[in-house]
Design brief:
The complex is a heterodimer of chains A (108) and B (478). By secondary structure, chain A is an alpha+beta fold. Chain A is 51% helix and 26% strand. Chain B contains eleven helices and 25 strands. The longest helix of chain B is centred in the N-terminal third of the chain and has 19 residues. Classes of the chains: A alpha+beta (108), B alpha/beta (478). At the A-B interface, strand 1, strand 2, strand 4 and strand 5 of A face strand 12, helix 7, helix 8 and strand 25 of B.
């Protein structure tokens, strides 16, 4: 009983640390998006693929993950997408992602 | 003498809530008032009111409670009117969004105002010349040879709050339009629309802005004109109504730029003007998602011109003006000094007239406004003019030509920035293109107004299947 409790704690701890590390990496790379997601989610963000990225694969990945593509900018290899924190973390780890930006407001 | 009294000299532009009041320079003291009030005649003034509004407005703005702020302004205005015994005077103007009243006052009333706790200052309600005339001289428009074309055959896309195409100053200049709105503020409650109707002004405070900007580019009147009066205009509204105000998003701007990219060849678009932005960047912001479109448009021969912003920064500009490959424009005053409100930093590309510029506004009227929003379209118009005169000039050559004006030194940071001056820009192009400008009767691109690609009439969608309406490479998908 005691062993299984320890086992649960160790597994939970490892998972939590892993998640923390993923989040840290994503948040270090795209701090503005991370800060926004800590305020509220989902958010709309602009994803920019690098010029050498495999765009069809990246788009398929977005679709497979059920990440909502609001607008696709084919000419510039960019997508306006709707993201939660977990989707953001997963997306930031994908190869070929050059940038993830907040869809900024220009208020008057 | 063609003069307009401009009541609203407090600047309103798409940049800002923290605008600099252009009227500040004219604050009156008793001696100055007496000098103006000859024979005890009343003097037109603008009374700027004290209000505890700075912090309150920020909070209200953050919460989207503009109605409360306007109520507050109205209360302060009413309190002063009550104190002064002003009731329903026809010559009294209460400004809706700033705590100010315009009115003609007697010497006795001036003394009362000066003594009132409600009053922050009393300013001259100046008679302004049509400053587009003045700025035209500043940029050397009146010194050009007859062989120079004034934008004929080329278009400038105005990505802004929409353009009133029916304004007499812009008659027949607007040849196409579109609208992009994240919250479905486009005509018919849609998120995107195309056609001249779609490019009409948004509804809300500040929606005159795009019409003002368009007039600076290509307005035409017998007594004044824009920089490239023969150029065409493309009106793209990216501002959405939100609460009591209007706002735009990066993705709206990107969709507008995508539209320009797709139609650059069919409409012979020489430049895009974006008098919008926000934030503060002390270094170029080349990670902005908008930059890819700026660079892509350059490959189609389109120069992107962006206003620097009006926060009076001496070490940074707003986004997207911070994109290094765009032409970022600061403002100079009619007397040739850098405007106090104009953002600046070492990477600022150029300055152009932006102080007290009179141009078209809504309902067929004219008004003066100040801001880098007004400076940028001087440059966008200049690009259309240069391109129409030297059609083979590349984006790089056009941008280099713009840098050949007299440099203005900003006393705040000692940065020297070239000012827009058309004769030197043309001289540079003449030299690098190694040819004289083509004669006026040589063929120019056909830029006659075209049927919109898609329009909705009485709920029926009409698609134009002309080749010009077919998406080119890199079509956008929604």
């Amino acid at each position: 009983m005691v062993i299984s409790r320890y086992y649960f704690c160790i597994v939970a701890g490892l998972l939590s640390t892993g998640c923390e590390q993923d989040s840290t990496h994503a948040c270090e790379r795209f701090p503005a998006v991370c800060a926004e997601l800590k305020n509220h989610q989902p958010i709309t963000a602009i994803v920019t693929a690098s010029f050498t990225a495999d765009k069809p694969t990246l788009k398929s990945w977005l679709e497979d993950e059920d990440i909502r593509i609001v607008t696709e900018f084919e000419a510039t290899d960019q997508w306006l997408v709707e993201l939660t924190m977990s989707e953001f973390i997963a997306l930031s780890a994908q190869p070929g992602i050059e940038n993830i930006s907040i869809d900024k407001f220009y208020p008057r | 003498m063609f003069k307009i009294r401009v009541f609203i000299s407090i600047n309103v532009c798409l940049f800002c809530t923290g605008m600099v009041c252009s009227v500040m320079a004219g604050q009156l003291n008793p001696v100055a008032f007496e000098a103006m009030a000859q024979d005890d005649e009343p003097v037109p003034v603008i009374v700027l009111l004290n209000h505890s509004g700075d912090n309150k407005s920020t909070t209200a703005e953050k919460k989207g409670q503009w109605l409360n702020l306007q109520d507050h302004i109205e209360q302060v205005q009413q309190q002063l009117a009550d104190d002064m015994g002003w009731v329903n005077f026809n010559d009294m103007v209460k400004f809706k969004h700033v705590p100010a009243i315009a009115k003609t006052v007697t010497a006795q009333e001036f003394k009362q105002l000066a003594a009132s706790d409600l009053v922050q200052g009393v300013y001259t309600d100046r008679l302004n010349n049509l400053s587009l005339n003045t700025s035209s001289k500043t940029v050397g428009l009146n010194a050009l040879a007859d062989t120079v074309r004034l934008g004929q055959g080329y278009a400038v896309a105005i990505i802004d709050s929409g353009v009133q195409a029916s304004h007499p100053f812009l008659a027949s200049r607007v040849i196409a339009g579109a609208c992009f709105s994240f919250n479905a503020s486009c005509p018919g409650g849609t998120k995107r629309a195309s056609g001249i109707e779609a490019g009409m002004p948004c509804s809300g405070p500040g929606c005159f802005h795009g019409t003002h900007v368009a007039g600076i580019v290509a307005g035409q009147h017998e007594q004044l004109s824009g920089i490239a009066k023969d150029a065409s205009l493309i009106a793209i509204n990216v501002f959405s109504t939100l609460g009591q105000g209007i706002t735009s998003r990066d993705s709206d701007v990107m969709q507008a730029l995508d539209w320009v990219y797709q139609h650059a060849d069919s409409y012979h678009i020489a430049a895009v003007n974006m008098s919008l932005g926000g934030g503060y960047y002390s270094q170029p912001c080349d990670d902005s998602p908008i930059k890819r479109y700026v660079d892509l448009l350059a490959t189609r021969g389109v120069v992107t011109v962006i206003a620097a912003g009006n926060e009076g920064r001496e070490d940074g500009v707003a986004s997207p003006g911070c994109i290094s490959t765009a032409v970022t424009v600061g403002s100079i005053e009619p007397e040739g000094t850098i405007s106090a409100f104009s953002n600046s930093y070492a990477q600022l590309d150029m300055v152009a007239p932006g102080g007290h510029i009179t141009s078209s506004v809504l309902n067929g009227e004219y008004a003066a406004s100040s801001g880098t929003s007004m400076a940028a379209p001087h440059v966008a118009g200049a690009i259309a003019l240069l391109k129409s005169t030297y059609p083979k000039a590349s984006v790089e050559q056009l941008m280099a030509a713009l840098q050949h004006g007299h440099a203005f030194t900003d006393p705040r940071n000692n940065v020297q920035t070239p000012g827009l001056y058309l004769p030197t820009a043309l001289a540079y192009l003449q030299q690098v293109m190694s040819s004289v400008p083509p004669p006026k009767n040589s063929p120019v691109p056909d830029n006659t107004p075209q049927t919109p690609c898609r329009q909705v009439i009485d709920g029926i969608v009409i698609e134009n299947t002309d080749a010009a309406c077919q998406p080119q490479e890199g079509a956008i998908q929604w």
